[in-house]
Amino acid sequence: DALECLSYLASVMRDLGKYDESETMHRHAFAVRDKVLGGDHPDTLTSANNLAVVLQYQGNYDESETVNRRALEGRERILGAGHLDTLRSVSHLAIVLWRQGKYSVSEAMNRRALEDREKVLGSEHPATLSSLNNLGVVLQSQGKYGESEMIQRRVLQGREKLLGPDHPETLTSLNNLAV
Fold first, then answer.
1. From which residue to which does any coiled coil extend (predicted)?
2. What is the pLDDT of residue 1?
3. pLDDT at residue number 111
4. pLDDT band with cut points at 50, 70 and 90 for residue 177
């Protein structure tokens, strides 16, 4: 449908760094879906999630947190706590909270995302490794260097095995460990 195409284009614009254009498109898709489908429709919640992500990229963390929480609460209610889309919202909210310096809340959200992704996807899935990486970064931000290092080593090993030693995500893990 047209809104799905608009959402896809908005995500492409975000990936190209054209955040203002992406935000405008995501806001439109979200508003129309909210009006036509209702606030709890999975497509509306996806639009909310997508808008929250671009707001985070723009550094608009307060609004991103608000929209993220709406998406997460709706997804928990409609899809369930263990659904992959719900876990994606948990992870996105954890990143926004970290960016705001709300480290203890971010840590709890990251631990939740990690635990549930391990159950649903397994410990070596890229999304699980991403949650593990995010947890390591938050722990480092709190000065919990020992635990952060152990986690970052696990992420590095997992990404080397899954993606190879020269993949950008593997190199990011190596950098995170060095810091």
1. none
2. 79
3. 98
4. confident
- Supply 128's token pair: 């699980």
Domain 1-81 has CATH 1.25.40.10: yes
Q: What's the rounded mean pLDDT across residues 42-65?
A: 98
Q: Which two tokens stand for residue 77?
A: 């209610």
The DSSP letter of residue 166 is T
CATH of region 101-179, choose from 1.25.40.10, 3.20.20.150, 3.70.10.10, 1.10.10.60: 1.25.40.10
Query: Which amino acid is located at 22 in the chain?
Result: S
Mean pLDDT of the region 131-159: 96
Q: b/e string for 124-141 if b means 16 or more Cβ within 10 A?
A: eeebbbbbbbbbbbbbbe
On the 0-12 / 13-18 / 19+ scale of CB atoms within 10 A, 145 is: exposed
